[in-house]
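W.,

You were right to be curious about this one. When I first looked at the sequence I had no strong expectations either way, so I just let the prediction run and decided to look at it fresh. Below is the sequence, 384 residues in total, followed by the output.
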Amino acid sequence: MFSNNKNVSRRRLGHHLLPLILGGVLLTGCSKSDAPPPEQPALPVTVLSAQPQRVPQTLEIMAQTEGAKETEVRARVSGILTKQLYREGEVVREGQPLFQIDRAPYEIAHAEAKARADQTAREMARAQKLLEINGVSRREYDDAVSANEMAQAALRQAQLNLSWTSVTAPVSGVSGRADKSVGNLITTGVDSLLTRIYLNNPIWVRFSLSEGEAARLPGGRLTPESISDVELVLADGTIYPQHGKINFLASAIDTVLGTQQLRAEFPNAEGHLLPGQFVRVRLTTGEREGVYLVPQSAVLQTAQGDMLMLADKDDKIVERSVQLGEWSGKDWIVLSGLNSGDRVIIDNLLKLRHGMPVAPHAPQPKAEAAAASSQPAPADAQQH
């Protein structure tokens, strides 16, 4: 009797406690979901204040150097090459002997031609005396004169052939590699090339301008009057100290390549530039006003276009699409998309997301940055 009453009391107590327990669980769950998330710490970033500037409008084009004059040295007579009289790559003077071709056959031919010329000269003199006394006809005298003239011409040719066995430099300049070796048989015509001589001061730089590059210029085309300066950028990125000038501008577009051929001329008295070097020509074609300069590292190139990360007035990340021009030194020229005073973020770009809080600071001077990096770590950090 008493046991049944206890069981009934327990069941009634359980019915009363169950709603209280469920309510506590629900309240606990609600309190957890309604709790605000922890605030994200602001990421330190370096910013530059965008200011409109005036910068030169430049265009860089791949180019190749070449000698202002490239002269071929060819043999005028055939024969065995017996001597090479110069060192390849050295500066040679006009008239300096470079090669020697076997002289013996031409010395013999010259001796024969001289003997024949002396004989015809004597015969002509004898015929002239006989003509004065009517000892020969006028026709016989004329034949003697013609024979002597032909013999003298043959002698002159033999003299030239003998002199041409010594191959000399037709111009002064830097000598090239010898195309023939001592002992080779040299023949006139296609096989007569022995070497080349290059005039490297001034040196020429050949390049071409595509239609797309020309469209970026004022007026959509390049003229000698529109070029205010010509610079040369070497392979290591340094600027050649001497400025150049345009000495050739094609008046027509190449129908095959769709380009306009140009050539610039640079002083090269010290011989720093050699023919065949690949360089870049930088043409200054005017000035751009109201543009902005940002470091190349600050530009994000995405599928949607070129982007910059900015810090707004609340120190939050804002993405901004921009239109870029050409490079100016190590900076990009921003044509549109920026306003004066915009704070452009230049580091930690891969960690940034739209709306993220940041702690902007101005660029640290190089001297201070180097000093900060050289300071020893705190004692507690060293222990860790």
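Here's what jumped out at me. The helical segments are 2-33, 104-132, 138-164, 211-215, 366-374, 379-383. And, maybe more interesting for your project: Residues 173 and 236 are 27 Å apart (CA to CA).

Coffee later to discuss?

I.
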